[in-house]
Automatic annotation (TrEMBL):
Residues 1-250 form the EAL domain. It comes from Ideonella paludis. This is EAL domain-containing protein. The chain holds residues 466 to 715 of 718 of the full protein. It comes from the Bacteria.
Amino acid sequence: VRLLSQLRVDAERSAFTFEAQPKVDREGKVTGAELLVRWTTREFGAISPVEFIPLAEQSGAIELLGRQALLCAGRLAQDIAAKGLRLHIAVNLSPRQLHNMAFERMALHACERFGIKPAQLELELTESALADASVLPLLRRLRNHGFTLALDDFGTGYSSLSYLLKQPVQKVKIDRAFVRDITSDNAASEVIKGTLQICRGLGLKTVAEGVETWAQFEMLRDLGVDEFQGYLFARPMPIDQWLAQLAGEG
Ligand code: G
Ligand code: G
Ligand code: MN
Ligand code: NA
């Protein structure tokens, strides 16, 4: 209860921070980064999003967190464009955010405010967020505005092929549970192969999450995965650190 009230107070104060975890292409070149929220309280220390996102969803604080994430993404996309780089910034969305009437306006506002195009932002949605067919019109509008929609944690929910066909997403992120087992478990690699084949057929880009070893990277690359994210390339890091790295590379 104390945690919940602290969460409300901190959400009002925009007290969340965000880390960036880069993604790379098949050559290992950076394509963009995913923003991951961080929350540290004086009383309880750092709390994992796995713990507080559900609380934020229940309490409604997720609206404020989501707004802060969009603004952070917009600002970062602006900084990156100013360096002459063409990289995307991805934000995670909770199911509840898609039921907020103001979400679309908030997302467009973030783009206007920082002078960026929606195409520079990627919205990561979980299967559970898409399970409710009533969000489809919003997703179509977001896509028409130019936002890239990515299906996160693919394979952990209950998506069937027919279900995937109906989604207006352009990218599929293969869950790290499959990536973890790809070199040891034949079933995991068959699931990935099947997923990649379907995605190719539908013209969807693919991202492998949680890539930790060279063996995983090489196997996934041979199978045709487009983008990669994981500790092998970089851990989530403070945004300024990522910008400094990019400056070094550029
Ligand atoms: O970095 P990591 O352990 O911390 O993230 C854990 C989970 O929290 C991930 O599944 C991720 O999707 C979710 N998450 C991270 N940042 C955000 C965010 O800004 N908004 C939402 N809704 N979820 C997030
Ligand atoms: O949004 P999503 O559920 O994809 O959240 C990404 C989560 O995965 C974050 O918690 C992030 O810290 C974590 N993560 C990113 N790369 C790796 C990795 O290589 N290995 C593991 N175990 N976790 C990772
Ligand atoms: Mn994600
Ligand atoms: Na994931």
